[in-house]
Amino acid sequence: MTAHLTQKENFLRVARGEMPEYVPVSTFLGPDEPLITMADPCILGSFRGPGGGVDPWGVTFVTGEEVSFAALPKPNDFILTDITKWRDVIKAPDYTGFDWEAAAKADYKKYVKDPNQTAYVLSGYADIFQQFIGFMGFTEGLCAIYEEPEEVEELLDYMLEHSLYITKNLLHYYKPEGYYLLDDTASKLNPFISPKVFEEMFVPRYKKCLDLVRDENVPIFYHNCGRCEDLMPAMVDIGVSVWDPAQLENDLVGMKQKYGSKLAINGGFEFSMPSTWPIIDEEEVRQAVRDTFAELAPDGGFIFSGMIKSLDFFDPKVQEVNGWIADEAKKLSKTVYQ
């Protein structure tokens, strides 16, 4: 098959619910230009980076080798301990004098090396669940959601004004090719909150931001790890078009049958380390990739992304296995839609 579309054009077809020429393959690691940037605009700072830092609300994020330098709110250092006192503690960031136009130019230059290969996808910082949990921690935060829902909702509305401010300016000055909502609300086994609470408390607030994005015809990417399929119908209803990462804890085949290309599955693959590690059968790994393509690629709506389940990205054996996965996916990519 001769491909006529660039990597980015083909990828954005999937994000818009259209039929691509070939299956996009997103590996994130290696020499290839990434499909998407998944970046924070510089106004938010670099707290989610490998060095950690302080987010716009004053929450300290820390990192470390044990979590592969992913930034997490500093344990037991929560800025809000009593939800009824949030008005005294939580203060919206002040961006007086911030030069959005200059920031947009600088960020584009920073994140996009090849505009023909990488889609400019940016966060609007509408992840109000994670922000809220960052204020209080999971134990107190989840208790507050169930014990003081009115106080929580008033705080969420206050936080939402900040998300709307970021989103409006992002759309105006940055002209992104995709909008990224990163808000993990599920564990490996189940959502942290019931679908009913999710739909009543969070979805209407997400919708206010996503309506702005839909008005600009920008595809919406939703990051939610773990088993979150129970929450996805409400998110599809408000405009989410790409689920990233769609992990194996979910019924991905069932979701594909239900939504087709309306909800693109980005992910769909993980290979567990065998008990014989580091001895591993290359053909078994490649067959697992082929099986994933057979289940999820037909009729579009699929972006392959995945690797062996390990955070030790620099282990030579892990890199070798991930190389097999990427190689097999790229071979299959151009053949599925012939």
Automatic annotation (TrEMBL):
Q: Per its UniProt record, what SUPFAM superfamilies does this chain match? A: UROD/MetE-like
Keywords (alphabetical) are:
Methyltransferase, Transferase
Q: What is its EC number?
A: 2.1.1.-
Decide whether keyword Manganese is in the record: no
Secreted found in the keyword field: no
- Which BP terms from GO are recorded? methylation; porphyrin-containing compound biosynthetic process
Cite the Pfam families for this sequence. Answer: URO-D
Q: Which GO terms describe its molecular function?
A: methyltransferase activity; uroporphyrinogen decarboxylase activity
Name the top EC class.
Answer: transferase
Boundaries of each Uroporphyrinogen decarboxylase (URO-D) domain copy?
A: 138-305
The record's listing under PANTHER family reads: METHYLCOBAMIDE:COM METHYLTRANSFERASE MTBA
Q: What is the protein name stated in its UniProt record?
A: Methyltransferase 1 MttB7
Q: What is the lineage of its organism?
A: Bacteria, Bacillati, Bacillota, Clostridia, Eubacteriales
Q: Which gene encodes it?
A: mttB7
